[in-house]
Design a protein that fits this description.
With 303 residues, this protein is of the alpha/beta class. The protein contains 13 helices and nine strands. The chain has helices at residues 2-7, 34-46, 57-64, 78-81, 98-113, 125-133, 152-163, 172-186, 221-239, 243-265, 271-276, 278-285, 295-301; strands at 22-26, 50-55, 71-74, 87-90, 120-122, 146-148, 189-192, 197-200, 206-209. A nine-stranded mixed β-sheet has the order 3-2-1-4-5-6-7-8-9, with helices on both faces. It is globular and about 50 Å long. It starts with a helix and ends with a helix.
Length: 303
């Protein structure tokens, strides 16, 4: 909880639009338009000022129809907007066909090579693109700030690709060691999601985040985490705070919001329930009283 408090921007009358973060999600496709929306909405609920989604043309109109809060553009425009952005999340819902892999791979190269440095989080189909398009010896630029966010299957795929070993069925301590070697090889941070979340740095510093969450695992929670992580990472970068503090904060808010959502919705809990609990969780950390809402009201707040 302290990590969250340390990274939250101070709100006062001197702020201008964008000071609390101009962020973007590069992802989404005709088949998976919801993933980038969950991520972008989580960014806004946490407190980012602006959240863009750059997606394939077939998905743009669909995503625009979800909410007026998110700014939706087509993927070819992404490089032209990069200078105006503080940080980027790449991958949610982007798709795995050959054309999508090429687009995502190009976005990763552009975003991680940007100067001045743009914090970048790579999730879901962004991780797939790396395993499909990178060659042995490829790594992120030395000046880059990159976090990979694999789940168990994605971690195993990355380990097989770049380290020629598997993480299937291995204990947390062993996964930590593999993740540390992966981070060092690719020059990035790795946030390995699981019952306990594992975080390692390019210097092989390792930590484990243990915080109770929800027993439910509906689709979209990883997208929420990725959006929160990108926001906290941008705030940490602006404040000169360590990357691991952003990871700890994102883990805490995701798990706490999931726990509250499960309390209200039980087996019917979904990603929109979790997004609806982000604001109460943050207000609780700030010591601001919150009113408990019934599940229907919670869901309506996320529409």
């Amino acid at each position: 909880m302290q990590a969250v408090s340390d990274l939250l921007p101070t709100l006062d009358d001197s702020l201008r639009k964008g000071d609390c973060g101009r962020l973007a999600v590069f992802g989404g496709s005709e088949d998976y338009p919801g993933a980038p929306f969950y991520a972008a909405t989580s960014m806004l609920r946490l407190g980012a000022d602006l959240a863009h989604i750059f997606t394939e043309p077939a998905a743009a109109t669909v995503i625009k129809s979800y909410s007026p809060e998110v700014l939706v553009g087509k993927s070819p425009a992404f490089p032209h907007w990069l200078d105006a952005l503080d940080g980027v999340l790449i991958g949610p819902g982007a798709g795995r066909d050959g054309a999508s892999v090429d687009l995502v791979s190009a976005a990763i190269r552009v975003a991680t090579s940007a100067e001045p440095t743009k914090p970048v989080v790579i999730d879901a189909d962004g991780l797939w693109a790396i395993t499909q398009s990178w060659m042995d010896g490829d790594r992120f630029p030395d000046h880059s700030i990159v976090i990979l966010t694999p789940n168990a299957n994605e971690m195993d795929r990355l380990a097989k690709k770049f380290l020629n070993e598997s993480t299937k069925g291995r204990q947390d301590a062993e996964v930590c060691e593999v993740a540390a070697r992966l981070a060092a090889a690719l020059h990035c941070h790795v946030f390995a999601k699981g019952p306990n979340d594992i975080f390692v740095t390019p210097k092989k510093e390792m930590m484990m985040f243990v915080h109770p969450g929800s027993p439910r695992r509906p689709g979209g929670i990883g997208d929420c985490l990725a959006g929160l992580l990108t926001t906290f990472l941008v705030w940490a970068h602006k404040k000169g705070e360590p990357v691991e503090k952003a990871a700890e904060a994102a883990c805490y808010v995701t798990r706490e919001a999931s726990k509250e959502a499960y309390t209200y919705s039980g087996r019917g809990m979904n990603a929109t329930d979790v997004i609806a609990r982000i604001v109460p969780v943050i207000r609780g950390i700030e010591g601001i009283p919150t009113n408990r809402m019934d599940p229907a009201t919670i869901a309506s707040r996320c529409e």
